[in-house]
Amino acid sequence: MARAGEEDLGLYLGRLASDPGAFDDLLNELTIGETYFFRTHEHFDFLRHQALPELRRLRGPEHTVRVWSAGCASGEEPYSLAVLLMEEGYGHRMEVHATDISRAALAHAQQASYSAWSLRSTGAERMRPFLRMEDKRYVLASEVRHRVRFHYLNLALDTWPSPESGISGMDIIFCRNVLIYFTRPTIAAVARRLYESLADGGFLITGPSDPTLAGLAPLEPLLTGWGVAWQRLPPGAPRSAASAPPSFPIRAPAPATPFTPPPLPPLPPLPVAP
C-alpha cells in the first residue's frame, strides 16, 4: 500500500479491482518471477524420452501436440517447449499456449528480448540457433515466437478449461512453481481443473517446490529420478499403487548454482522466412 501511495485499505482494494497496472505491481511484489530457458532440464528430458514417445504411440505420428505453459512469466518456459518440439520434429504439428496473471510479464514475453541471465543454464545452449544480438540483448527469432500463443488467465478462477479460454484438450501442461502461492482449497480446485484440461493420456509437470496433487484429482503419479510427474490415464488403463502419496521424500533437482554469466558472442541473424 505504501509503495502504491495508498493509506486506506478500502480505497486500495478498489484501485486493485479497477486498475490492472496497480494489480500487476502488487503481483510483482508478492511473486518471484525467477525463470530461464530450459530451467530444470530433467523436466524437458522427461518430455523428450517418455511423454512425447507415449503421446506419439497413443495419438499417431500426425497428431498436433497441444502444450500449455501455465504461469509462463516472461516467456522462457513456453519458448523452451517450442524449441524442444521443433527439435523432435513436430514443426507445424504443435500448439504452444502460454498464460499468466501478470499483464506486464505477458508483454515482456511477447517482446522475446532477453539478457544473458536468461541463458545461464547448460540447456539454454539449445536456444542459440534461434537468437540474434540486438542492443546488447538476445532476441528470439520469429520462427519460435510465432509458435507460442500468449493469453491472460487467472488460474484461481473457474473460467477454464473452456473453448473460450483456449485451454482444453492439452497433451502436456507445465504448471511449475505456481501452486505454492495458493491456499489448500484453491490448490484442490486448480488440480481438478488441470486434470480436466488434459486430454486422455496427457501429462502434467509441476515444480519441485509445489505441493503434491495426490488425492486432489484422479491423476496418476509417475515416479521418476527427479520427482513426480502426473498423467491423465487413457480409458481402461490400470491405476498403480503409486496413486497414494509417496511415503518417502522425493529428491528435487539441485538448484542451479548462481553465477554471473559472461556475455555470449554475437549471433548471426537467422534468414528471413518467406
TrEMBL record:
<dbReference type="InterPro" id="IPR022642">
    <property type="entry name" value="CheR_C"/>
</dbReference>
<dbReference type="InterPro" id="IPR000780">
    <property type="entry name" value="CheR_MeTrfase"/>
</dbReference>
<keyword id="KW-0949">S-adenosyl-L-methionine</keyword>
<dbReference type="GO" id="GO:0032259">
    <property type="term" value="P:methylation"/>
</dbReference>
<feature type="compositionally biased region" description="Pro residues">
    <location>
        <begin position="255"/>
        <end position="274"/>
    </location>
</feature>
<feature type="domain" description="CheR-type methyltransferase">
    <location>
        <begin position="1"/>
        <end position="210"/>
    </location>
</feature>
<feature type="region of interest" description="Disordered">
    <location>
        <begin position="236"/>
        <end position="274"/>
    </location>
</feature>
<keyword id="KW-0808">Transferase</keyword>
<dbReference type="GO" id="GO:0008983">
    <property type="term" value="F:protein-glutamate O-methyltransferase activity"/>
</dbReference>
<feature type="compositionally biased region" description="Low complexity">
    <location>
        <begin position="236"/>
        <end position="254"/>
    </location>
</feature>
<dbReference type="InterPro" id="IPR050903">
    <property type="entry name" value="Bact_Chemotaxis_MeTrfase"/>
</dbReference>
<dbReference type="Pfam" id="PF01739">
    <property type="entry name" value="CheR"/>
</dbReference>
<protein>
    <submittedName>
        <fullName>CheR methyltransferase, SAM binding domain</fullName>
        <ecNumber>2.1.1.80</ecNumber>
    </submittedName>
</protein>
<keyword id="KW-0489">Methyltransferase</keyword>
<dbReference type="InterPro" id="IPR029063">
    <property type="entry name" value="SAM-dependent_MTases_sf"/>
</dbReference>
